[in-house]
Design a protein that fits this description.
207 residues, 2 domains, five-stranded antiparallel beta sheet, two-stranded antiparallel sheet, 2 helices, 7 strands, 24% strand
Length: 207
């Protein structure tokens, strides 16, 4: 009779163990892929001519600073496309005023709380081959000016085939102005300020 109960318990224990191992592998793969991408970016910033790192800082450059990869900041967002997106001039760190369209809005949940961000398209960039489906998501959050660049961070996405898309704040990156003041960078609109600490993605370059 005891064996009748032991076998199902062993089977259940085995299934739980397999599920835990699968989850650990998935998290490990997630982390390794992010680290791989970051190493590639650091290599490009250290060596390529188009790098925003000032020439006099490249010798001392040993890589950018990042939060640890966190799967909690990779979320499924619902996208609502606006029927009549209006065009406007987005403010930048200089007098330049590039034209953008307000494409739509994404809604997502982080740590049990719902948030929204507007999604934009750069009108000039849309004219370039390969960028027809490009989406631009600039944002501010409560780490600005502390752990992260005070001028906000950016994310990129593509127009999805459905009304949802994956947003990964681990991919959030700094505008070039964070490294070099010679650049002109978009300033995230006030509507794209998140009242949460987004402890994911790139941190500030200068202390």
């Amino acid at each position: 009779m005891k064996a009748f109960f032991i076998i199902p318990l062993l089977l259940l224990s085995f299934m739980i163990s397999q599920a835990q191992q699968a989850a650990q592998k998935q998290e490990s793969d997630f982390t390794n892929e992010i680290i791989k991408q970051r190493k590639q970016k650091d290599k490009e910033f250290a060596n390529e001519k188009g790098s925003p790192i000032p020439d006099d800082e490249k010798k001392a450059f040993h890589g950018l600073k990042y939060f640890e990869p966190d799967p909690n900041f990779k979320v499924l967002a619902r996208l609502v496309k606006f029927d009549n997106p209006f065009h406007f001039k987005m403010k930048t760190t200089t007098d330049r005023l590039p034209e953008y369209s307000l494409y739509g809005k994404i809604t997502f949940v982080i740590k049990g709380e719902e948030f929204n961000l507007n999604v934009y398209q750069n009108i000039d960039l849309l004219k370039k081959p390969g960028y027809e489906n490009y989406l631009f998501i600039p944002f501010n959050d409560l780490t600005n000016g502390k752990e992260t660049y005070g001028g906000g961070r950016f994310m990129d996405a593509e127009v999805p085939a459905s009304d949802s898309l994956i947003i990964d704040f681990n991919d959030a990156y700094n505008p070039y102005c964070a490294y070099n003041h010679k650049y002109s960078c978009p300033i995230p609109p006030e509507d794209n300020s998140l009242q949460i600490r987004v402890e994911a993605g790139e941190m500030k370059y200068h202390d």
